[in-house]
């Protein structure tokens, strides 16, 4: 028995940060998803009331890359406004902003830090695949919500445009889920912190975020993404990202 325990411990020690991140990717990746959620935006400063939006979001992923849509459904003042962001394996981020009734503005590299629907999420946040960056390293252990997690630091590879010099992920080994992400700027300070506050367990046992909090330490603001319902591992039609579809929800 002692030999068996020792061998098991050696196997855990031998597992690299890249091995762990590969397991997380394999567990969490999906062909496509849809969701409805509330965006609760708490501006910086005392006494300012939060702003709440109802949104729909969807995404698809294949061998070519990924495409993500966020669109406001309520309140009427922002209804229909949307952003579609696409990342392919060989091209920089592409996509467009949509403003009802029919204005479509292409996304440029200068728009990577543009806020999505006034929240603390940016265009870059929607598509940055830091969990796939090569050469991640372990950086200790921590706890999130009372649960143990391993810290993994990832740096953008050469040629990758990123606002951050390091992304530090806190990975729950038992859930195979990244439960906190800290995005660190060139000065070594944390710019944003993403924390999973609640999770949901699917019938297949996979655990996914249910409530996500984004704390913008530079601005002092916070955005909470509270998912009310959603589907994963589905086929999302290309037409869902079309201008015609966006316009139909923007009227």
Report on the structure:
- The chain is mostly beta strands.
- The chain has a single domain, classed as Clam (outer membrane lipoprotein receptor (LolB), chain A).
- Helices cover 15% and strands 46% of the residues.
- The protein is built from four helices and 13 strands.
- Strands 6-5-4-3-2-1-13-12-11-10-9-8-7 form a 13-stranded antiparallel sheet.
- A hairpin with a 4-residue loop joins strand 9 and strand 10.
- The longest helix is centred in the first third of the chain and has 13 residues.
- The N terminus is likely disordered.
Per CATH, the superfamily is Lipoprotein localisation LolA/LolB/LppX
CATH class: Mainly Beta
- Rg (C-alpha, Å): 19 Å
| Total strands | 13
Q: Specify the CATH architecture.
A: Clam
Layout of secondary structure:
Layout lengths: L1 H13 L2 H12 L3 E11 L8 E12 L2 E10 L7 E7 L5 E6 L3 E4 L16 H5 L9 E8 L2 E8 L11 E7 L4 E8 L5 E12 L5 E10 L4 E12 L10 H7 L2
Please outline what is shown here.
This protein has 251 residues and is mainly beta. It has helices at 2-14, 17-28, 123-127, 243-249, and strands spanning 32-42, 51-62, 65-74, 82-88, 94-99, 103-106, 137-144, 147-154, 166-172, 177-184, 190-201, 207-216, 221-232. It is globular.
Descriptive keywords:
251 residues, mainly beta, outer membrane lipoprotein receptor (LolB), chain A, 13-stranded antiparallel sheet, 15% helix, globular
